[in-house]
Write a structure and sequence with these properties.
The complex is a heterodimer. By secondary structure, chain A is of the alpha/beta class. Chain A has helices at about 10-25, 35-45, 60-70, 85-95, 110-115; strands spanning about 1-5, 25-30, 50, 75-80, 100-105. Chain B is of the alpha/beta class. Chain B folds into two domains: about 5-70, Chemotaxis Receptor Methyltransferase Cher, domain 1; about 80-275, Vaccinia Virus protein VP39 (Rossmann fold), CATH 3.40.50. Chain B has helices spanning about 5-15, 25-40, 45-55, 60-70, 80-95, 115-125, 145-150, 165-170, 185-190, 220-230, 285-290, and strands at about 100-105, 135-140, 155, 175, 180, 190-195, 210, 240-245, 255-260, 265-270. The chains are: A alpha/beta, B alpha/beta.
Chain lengths: ~120, ~290
């Protein structure tokens, strides 16, 4: 079973994402900000990360850059999932090492097709 | 739309068509039904829903069901056929057509354009390999309304996220307000024409590759056979036909033969293939042939 770390400061979004990812047979771990997510990665590196951008304490972009520096941190497939929906933000995210990009709002089909495109399904 | 209205409509559509609408599809319901309401001069969905609730207007119910069951099109739908097109079909095509340096592709159920544009992107990604080549994608559909959308090449945020890798979004799309528009370069690669598959396609010309996915399922067996036979008449011996995951030529026509290792792809059968083949081993294929 593949694992996915869900990083979002909204409890509701985490819950919706968890439900969708569990239906896709992912084992899920959750974090409410980038710093918590970094701790989760240090204890166990996930196969995938579904990552919000704007969060308190540490935002998604900073987390992504930090995670990629960790031992084994180049491995996880990172899918941004954010309300930022312009090409400039997408460009910045991909250059920082994100593999895919979801613009909120999302539904199960978007997660499914994006994860399939990223080679996770 | 209230949760109660949503339940009402999804139950109705399910009874009429078997289509299952989960609550995460509420946005789809609204975006599909608004045009139905507008067409009837109604102010909004409330008026549409009460027309059904209070008066059970049959033609409204039919329009609603039709609007909801129209196939939603994805970019790179099912992924695999596009991988096969990229890895097998195109290289073979470039070899087979090296003399005339041109090829044509037909999307026989182009709908709102996602499939022809997906193919256009795969072809475009070949880059300089296609220098000096002429190529054309023809997208046809029975509905002029949907073809207008295809021609515009403008998609909602939801639509550009269904199956389209973000790298291709960055490369081939530009944002216009809330919508995403495919680049003019790609729009120019596809020519759209209104066409009913029940008619003779001769006037469309010849095609090296035909995508006809998830449309034959709506036809009965003799019609499927007729459509496929007419298609085969437009294709050279190296021609390739792509069908949907639930479709096959087995038991329908002997004008095409499956290509081993390429699921859903069929080659044009030559005279020797037309002889009666030994009975297929799979029970399903036998049932289909009988």
């Amino acid at each position: 079973m593949k694992s996915c770390l869900i990083v979002d400061d909204s409890k509701v979004i985490r819950m919706v994402a968890r439900k969708i990812l569990q239906d896709l047979e992912f084992e899920t771990v959750e974090a409410a900000d980038g710093s918590e997510a970094l701790d989760a990665c240090k204890s166990q590196m996930p196969d995938a990360v579904l990552l919000d951008w704007n969060m308190p304490v540490m935002d998604g972009l900073e987390f992504l850059k930090e995670m990629r520096k960790l031992p084994g941190g180049e491995a996880p497939i990172v899918v941004f999932c954010t309300t930022e929906n312009d090409l400039d933000h997408i460009q910045v995210a991909i250059e920082a090492g994100a593999n895919e990009y979801i613009m909120k709002p999302f539904d199960s089909e978007i997660i499914q097709t994006k994860f399939a495109q990223a080679g996770l399904l | 739309m209230t949760p109660d209205d949503f339940d009402f409509i999804s139950k109705l559509v399910n009874e009429r068509s078997g289509l299952v609408l989960t609550p995460d599809k509420a946005y789809l319901l609204e975006s599909r039904l608004m045009p139905v309401a507008r067409k009837r001069g109604m102010k909004g969905l409330e008026e549409l829903i009460s027309a059904i609730r209070l008066r059970s207007e049959e033609d409204v119910i039919r329009d609603v069901t039709e609007a909801m069951t129209t196939n939603e099109s994805f970019f790179f739908r099912d992924i695999k056929p596009f991988d096969i097109f990229r890895e097998h079909t195109l290289p073979e095509l470039l070899e087979a057509c090296a003399g005339k340096k041109s090829f044509r592709v037909w999307c026989a159920a182009a709908s709102s354009g996602q499939e022809p544009y997906s193919l256009a992107m795969v072809i475009k990604e070949l880059g300089s390999q296609l220098d000096g080549w002429r190529y054309e994608i023809v997208g046809t559909d029975i509905s002029t309304e949907i073809l207008d959308k295809a021609k515009a090449g403008t998609y909602s945020q939801f639509e550009v996220q269904r199956g389209l890798p973000v790298q291709l979004l960055m490369k081939y799309f530009e944002k216009a307000d809330d919508q995403w528009r495919i680049s003019e370069d790609l729009r120019k690669m596809v020519q759209y024409k209104e066409f009913n598959l029940l008619e003779d396609p001769k006037a469309l010309g010849t095609f090296d590759v035909v995508f006809c996915r998830n449309v034959l399922i709506y036809f009965d067996q003799p019609t499927k056979g007729q459509v496929l036979e007419r298609m085969s008449a437009l294709m050279p011996s190296h021609g390739k036909l792509f069908l949907g995951g639930a479709e096959t030529v087995l038991g329908v026509t002997d004008k095409f033969k499956p290509i081993s290792g390429q699921r859903g792809v069929y080659g044009v059968a030559d005279a020797t293939d037309a002889k009666p083949a030994p009975a297929p081993a799979a029970a399903g294929a036998q049932a289909a042939a009988s």
